[in-house]
Structures are given as structure tokens and as C-alpha cells.
Amino acid sequence: MTTRTAGAGATSRPGSVLRVWTPEDKAFWEREGQAIAKINLWISVPSLFLAFAIWQMWSVVAVSLPQLGFKYTTDQLFWLAASPALSGATLRIFYSFMVPLVGGRRWTAISTASLLVPAVGIGYAVQDPATSYSTMLVLALLCGLGGGNFSSSMANISFFFPKERKGSALGLNAGLGNLGVSVVQFLTPLVVGVGVFGVFAGAPQIVLDQDGDLAHVWMQNAAFVWVPWIVLAAVLAWLFMNDIADAKASFSAQAAIFRRRHTWLMCFLYLGTFGSFIGFAAGFPLLIKSQFPQVNPLAFAWLGPLVGALTRPVGGWMADSLGGARVTQWNFAVMAVAVLGVLCFLPKGGGGLALPFGPAEGSFAGFFLMFLVLFLTTGIGNGSTFRMIPVIFMNLKLSEFKDGKEADRARAVREGNTEAAAALGFAGALGAYGGFFIPKSYGSSIAATGGPELALWIFAVFYLVCIAVTWWHYARKGAAMPC
Fold first, then answer.
1. What are the beta bridge partners of residue 481?
2. Which end of the chain is more exposed for a tag (fewer CB within 10 A), N or C?
3. Which fold has domain 16-475?
4. Residues 313, 315, 318: CA angle, nearest 5 degrees
5. Distance CA 219, CA 202 (A)
6. How far apart are CA 201 and CA 123, in angstroms?
7. Smallest Cα–Cα separation from 263: which of 375, 385, 84?
């Protein structure tokens, strides 16, 4: 492996280890740090994009399985849509600590290449309606490899940028990466209708279209279309990203975050923002299909994740400008109101849990508009909460070194960055469980009451609790950790 020492006029070389990395030094940042950081960011983004595409593939594939001849129940389909979030969230716990142990360049390349396993497996499995449900469930769980990548990606990028730019950088990495959720829902109906890979992808499946006519589809393309891009992204990461020597840390050093209450508070808040984003994205197509059966869910579902992904960088930028706690607090307030809006426009039912407003038969236009508001606010909240975490942990470490010695301050900055990276990854891990609980809550609510209203009421109450937590600990005058 090639190594390098940062210095005047130095440039990054492929596969290099950055022996000196001081982004808080403005002269270093302007001279060379900014250029190196941007290279790593713009390779990280497509890698994360592909990870999200693989992670959320089942939100689209599950909707199409009955048409292909798979005899699965509605609850089983919700399980397939929710399972990648369950495994992805669990993997994120481990991925949170991998960058300081392995190196950002190495781990990005390895974790991106691992996406080939579910992509190739699903491509073959969907071609045979006799594929067992247990096999499909295992493949759905393997898609969690994409979900795990988020924690390591965000932890890695956090090392490259100074404190005042972390919100924007993390927002770009996550926001453009989150676009994979929307693109997989938009692109899949297009690629499955064309034999783009010829004989290499297998024969088409014969299905009935909306007009009752026979049509050919290549559902395997929903998975195979990502394979060449995964290979390319893994190679680029290996060749052109960097490992940071100062980012090396043992697990015990990173585990200090578990003793800090702010770790758990921010995990709770991020569950409300990212957990909502990924959960709503995973369950949106099936929810549309169950509540408005006359609507083609794949024609609309992709717009929600698109809005959430595009607004995540905006949330990071707003937090850098206005303060993360202020943006997060008001964002949760809008989320609570938007959930009530969804309840207004659902078809009336759900064991009397619907609001007494709106048409009895429901309104898809109103329902869809309220969900777009929800996706918008999840994106803003994702950006603002992830800006809060590095600031909180950096301030905590700096407060422990008050004697003003430059060596002590430099050590505090290094340790603050290490803890912040671990906290970002761990918050991402716990937040991702929302991708399981939200679609599963829909299924359980429908089974228990006949509609999803009970689940939505629980979400609204949860957002109110998030407002109180944000205000008390971070936003109010005299808060323990204003940020």
C-alpha cells in the first residue's frame, strides 16, 4: 500500500493512507484538505446510493410477486418488505465501528462488493415461482448488507470535514445516497419491461397487464441492473479513496459512546427522522395498494423517497445556519401534523380510529400530498440530527480539556471525531429499525383493526415525545447541550 504525508503542495494518490489529517486547521484545509475530502465524498456517494437501492429493492419486488405467481399472503409480503430493514439495522451496529478498525477505503470497497450477493441471488430467485418463501426471506435479509453500509459510510465521511462543514457534507452523502430508495422504485418498472440483458439474464415471465392482456416482464432485471455498477463502485473506492491514520481506534475507545446519555438521546431522535424515512419508503407501495387498490402504487411511491432524499442536504445546511436543535424541534412538529393529515384522507374504517374529517371513501390525492410532506420533513430531520451529533461529541471532548494546551486540544479533537463517528454510525443503526417497525406496524394494525390508523396514531404520539426531548435537552434556554 502507498502511504503519504500531508504537506504543502501534496496531492492524494490512489490507495494512500493520510498520515497527517487536520481539517480543523484552516490553512491545511484550504491548501489540500478540501480537495482530498471532496474526492472521498464523491466516491462515497454512489457507493451509498447503490447500498440503498439494494436495501430497498424488496419494497418494489414484494408488490410484484403475486402477479408473477408467488402464492404469498399479504402479511408475508409485508414481512419481505420489512425484513431488509431488520437485518440492515442490526448490521449497522457492527458497521458503526468498522472504519476505525479497518480503514474507510478498505471497508467502503469491501462492503460495496458484498452487495453482489443479494443482487445476484434475487435475480435468479424471482424467475421461479416455486422458490420457497424461506429462500425469499433469506434473500430479503441479505439485502440488509446495503442498510449496514450507511453507518460505516457516514462515520467515514465525518472524519474528512471540519466541524462547521460536517452538516453539509454528511447531508450530501446521506441525501444523495438516499436517492437510491427513490430510484429503485422508479427504475424497476422500466427495466423489468425490457430484456436489456438478453439471454444473459434469463427468459421473461408471462403476466397479465392492467388491461388483462398477456405481457412479458423480466423481473430479474430489478436486481441484475445494479450488478455492473456495484462492481465499478467497489473498484473506484479501492483505487481512489483514502484511509486516515488518525482515524484508527480500538473498539474500546469507540465504546465510550455507550456511557454518554447523548448517544441514546440522539438515537431516539434519529429513530424519529431516519426511521420514519426508511420505514415509510419500505411500506409506502404496499400501503397504497391496501388502501387505494384502484391506484398503481409503483407509479407514485418513488416520489416520496425522492423528496426525502433531496431535502436531507437542505436539513444539514439549515442546521449549519440556524442550529440543529431548532430545526429538529420544529421539524418534528410538522411531522406530527402531517400524520394527522394522512389520517384525514384515509378511507374511513380502522375500527373507528379515523379522524371525522375528509371523504368517507378517502382521497388518494390528499393522502399522497400528506405523505410527501412527511417524506420532506424526514429528509430535513435526517440532516439536522446528523449535524447535531458531531457538534455534541466534539463539545463534550473539548469541555474535558480546559487548560488551553494545544497538544491537549488536538487530542480532544481527535477523540471527539472518533466518538462522533461511532455515534453517527450507532444512531444510524438504531434509527434503521424504523424500516422494520413501520411497515410491520401497518400490517399488524390492518390485521387487528381493519386499517392502518392505529399505527399512524402511535407515530403521531411518538413525534410529540421527540419534540419534548429535543426542546429539553438541546433547544431550550439553559439546555444541557445547546447545538
1. none
2. N
3. Growth Hormone; Chain: A; (1.20.1250)
4. 110
5. 10
6. 8
7. 385
13's grid cell: 494518490
pLDDT for residue 259? 87
DSSP string covering 343-369, please? HHHSPS-GGGTS-S-S-TT--HHHHHH
Residue 49 CA to residue 65 CA, distance in Å, equals 25
Q: For residue 210, give the amino acid letter.
A: Q
In angstroms, the first-to-last Cα distance of the chain is 40
CA distance linking residue 149 with residue 153, whole number of Å: 6
φ/ψ of residue 70, rounded to 5: -80, 125
Task: Report the phi/psi class of residue 480: left, alpha or beta, with left for phi > 0 and alpha for psi in -120 to 50.
Answer: alpha
pLDDT at 9: 39
Q: What is the DSSP string of 33-83?
A: IHHHHHHHHHHHHHHHHHHHHHHTTHHHHHHHTGGGT----HHHHHHHHHH
Percent of the chain residues topping a pLDDT of 70: 91
Q: Per the structure block, which three cell numbers stand in for 395? A: 463539545
The CA R_g of the chain, rounded to the nearest whole Å, is 23
Report the distance separating Cα 74 and Cα 78, nearest Å. Answer: 6
Pick left, alpha or beta for residue 349 (phi over 0 → left; psi -120 to 50 → alpha; otherwise beta): left
Residue 324 is which amino acid?
A: G
Strand pairing report for 205-208 and 17-18: unpaired
Grid coordinates representing 78? 409485508
Higher pLDDT, 360 or 253: 360
Instruction: Report yes or no on whether pTM surpasses 0.90.
Output: no
Give me the phi and psi of 249, to 5 degrees please. -160, 145
Query: How far apart are the C-alpha atoms of 353 and 456, rounded to whole Å?
Result: 10
Task: Read off the pLDDT of residues 320-355 as tens digits, 9 standing for 90 and up.
Answer: 889 999 999 999 999 999 999 999 999 887 666 777
Name the residue with higher pLDDT: 399 or 145: 145
Q: By three-state DSSP, how is residue 301 classified?
A: coil
Question: Going by C-beta distance under 8 Å and a sequence separation of 6 or more, which residues neighbour residue 174?
Answer: 48, 150, 154, 312, 382, 383, 386
Strand ranges for 78-213 from DSSP E: 205-208
